[in-house]
Write a structure and sequence with these properties.
By secondary structure, the chain is of the alpha/beta class. The chain has a domain at 67-217 and 301-403: Alpha/Beta hydrolase fold, catalytic domain (Rossmann fold), CATH 3.40.50. It contains 14 helices and 15 strands. The chain has helices spanning 2-12, 14-27, 38-54, 118-122, 150-164, 177-189, 214-220, 224-231, 249-259, 261-276, 280-293, 301-313, 357-361, 387-403, and strands spanning 67-69, 72-74, 76-84, 87-94, 102-106, 129-135, 168-173, 198-202, 233-234, 245-247, 299-300, 323-324, 327-328, 339-344, 370-375. The strands form 4 sheets. It has an 8-stranded mixed β-sheet, sandwiched between helices. Strands 9-10-11 form a 3-stranded antiparallel β-sheet. A two-stranded antiparallel ribbon has the order 1-2. The longest helix is centred in the first third of the chain and has 17 residues, at 38-54. 38% of the residues are buried.
C-alpha cells in the first residue's frame, strides 16, 4: 500500500512538471527580454531546478559512439548475449577491431542501473572486449520467475564467466565486489577453467568492520526485523512484477543521499549558480550525473535482506561463514587469480580498509599476484567515474590486467 501511494504521488507530479516546464520555456525564451536580465537568468535557473525535482528519471542507455583503435573509428554495437530473468549479459562489440582481452564488469545492485558504470566502461572500450551485468528492475520481473538473493546473484556471475569463456578479467564495482569475490572463491575451489583471469574490486564492502564511519556505526545497532517492516513493499499492480516483495530503489538512493546530504545540497546550489552564470559545461555535468543518479531500480526482498545479514551485519566473508549452495566459500582456495583492490581516500561510504580486507581473506595468494591502492582525492563515485578515474585509476587497472594476462 505504501509503495502504491508513493508511486501514485510520483505520477501525480506530472501536471505540475508540465506547468514548470512551460514557465521555464517562457522565462528563458530568446525573444523574452527578461531572459537576458540577471533576475531572469536566476528565475530560469530556479524553474529548471524545480522541474528536475518533479520529473521522472527513466533508465538511460549506454549509447557508446565509435571508438578509435589504431587510427580507425570502430562502431560499438550493444548486444544482449545471454538473457536471464533478473539480468542481461551485455556485450559491446567493436566492429572492425582486433581481438582484445575480455573483461566482465559486475555492476552493483544498490538502487541504480548498470548504466551508472558507463564512464568506467568507456575507458576500456578502445583496448578491451567489454561485457557488463545489466540487472533488471525487480518490479519488472513476474513473481513466477522465482527468488533472487545473494547466492543467485553469485550464480549468475559464475554462469556469465563460463559463457564468456576462460581468460576473462573481472571488475566488481562497489557492492558487486562481494559476489564477484564469492564467485572467484567458488570457481577457484572447483578449479573451474573459466575462473577470472584477474579480479579487481573497486570500493566494495568486503569487511565493513575494517574501518569506522557513519555506515559501519549504523550497522552496529541496526534493527533488521524493524527495518524490513518499514522498507520492504509489494510492487503495485501497474507493473509486471506485481506482488513481488522489493526494496524500492527510491528508498535506497534516498538512504545514500542522506549519508552525504551536505555534498548533494552543495551540488544543487552550485548548479543553480552555474545555470544563472551560463557555466554550461559545469551545468551539463550536473545534469548528466543526476539524470543517471535519479534513475532507480528496485531490488528483491531476499537480495536486500541477505546482503544486509551476510555482508553488513554479520560479515560472513571475513569470518569464513559465507555459504553458496550449501557449501562454505573458502577464499584461501584462490591461489592463481591476481587480485587488485582499490579504495578512495575520501570515500564516506566504503572507507579505506573495507575493500583491502579482500587481500587478507585471500591469504593463500602469492604476493606477486596481489596489489592494493588508495587513490588520493576521490570519494566513492570518483573511484569509477570522473577525471581522476580516467587519468589514474583506469590506467592502473589496465596495467594490472596486462601484467597478468
Amino acid at each position: 500500500m505504501r509503495y502504491q501511494l508513493t508511486d501514485w504521488a510520483a505520477r501525480s507530479m506530472a501536471p505540475m512538471n508540465l506547468a514548470l516546464k512551460a514557465s521555464h520555456a517562457f522565462v528563458t525564451h530568446p525573444v523574452n527580454p527578461y531572459s537576458y536580465s540577471p533576475l531572469g537568468k536566476f528565475h530560469g535557473a530556479l524553474l529548471e531546478s524545480a522541474t528536475r525535482l518533479t520529473q521522472p528519471y527513466p533508465k538511460r542507455g549506454f549509447n557508446f559512439g565509435p571508438v578509435e583503435i589504431a587510427g580507425k573509428h570502430c562502431p560499438v554495437n550493444q548486444r544482449t548475449v545471454l538473457r536471464k530473468p533478473f539480468c542481461d549479459l551485455l556485450h559491446f562489440e567493436r566492429h572492425g577491431a582486433p581481438a582484445a582481452p575480455k573483461v566482465l564488469f559486475v555492476a552493483a545492485m544498490s538502487g541504480h542501473h548498470a548504466t551508472l558504470s558507463r564512464p568506467a566502461l568507456a575507458e576500456f572500450l578502445p583496448d578491451h572486449d567489454v561485457y557488463i551485468t545489466d540487472w533488471v528492475d525487480a518490479r519488472l520481473v513476474p513473481v513466477h520467475a522465482g527468488r533472487f538473493g545473494l547466492e543467485e546473484y553469485t550464480a549468475y556471475v559464475i554462469e556469465f564467466l563460463r559463457f564468456i569463456g576462460p581468460g576473462t578479467h573481472v571488475v566488481g564495482i562497489c557492492q558487486a565486489a562481494v559476489p564477484a569475490l564469492m564467485a572467484a572463491g567458488v570457481m577457484a575451489a572447483g578449479e573451474d577453467a573459466a575462473r577470472p583471469q584477474s579480479l579487481t574490486l573497486l570500493a566494495g564492502p568486503i569487511d565493513i568492520t575494517a574501518a569506522r564511519n557513519a555506515m559501519s556505526k549504523l550497522c552496529e545497532n541496526y534493527n533488521l526485523p524493524l527495518m524490513r517492516k518499514l522498507l520492504i513493499h509489494s510492487v503495485p499492480r501497474a507493473y509486471p512484477g506485481a506482488g513481488r516483495k522489493v526494496f524500492p530503489g527510491m528508498q535506497q538512493v534516498a538512504g545514500f543521499m542522506s549519508m552525504n546530504s551536505k555534498a548533494h545540497i552543495k551540488s544543487k546550489l552550485r548548479f543553480l549558480k552555474d545555470v544563472t552564470l551560463a557555466n554550461h559545461d559545469a551545468a551539463d555535468k550536473h545534469r548528466e550525473f543526476y539524470d543517471e543518479y535519479y534513475a532507480v531500480m528496485d531490488s528483491t526482498e531476499e537480495f536486500w535482506v541477505e546482503t544486509m545479514e551476510r555482508v553488513f551485519l554479520d560479515q560472513h566473508l571475513p569470518r569464513g561463514k559465507m555459504q553458496f549452495q550449501g557449501e562454505t566459500i573458502d577464499c584461501t582456495a584462490i591461489t592463481d587469480i591476481p587480485l587488485l583492490t582499490l579504495e578512495g581516500e575520501n570515500d564516506d561510504m566504503i572507507a579505506p580498509g573495507m575493500t583491502r580486507a579482500a587481500q587478507d581473506i585471500c591469504s593463500s595468494l602469492p604476493d606477486h599476484l596481489r596489489e592494493h591502492h588508495v587513490q588520493e582525492g576521490v570519494g566513492h563515485y570518483g573511484i569509477f567515474n570522473g577525471s581522476i578515474y580516467q587519468q589514474q585509476i583506469a590506467p592502473r587497472i589496465k596495467r594490472f590486467m596486462q601484467r597478468h594476462g
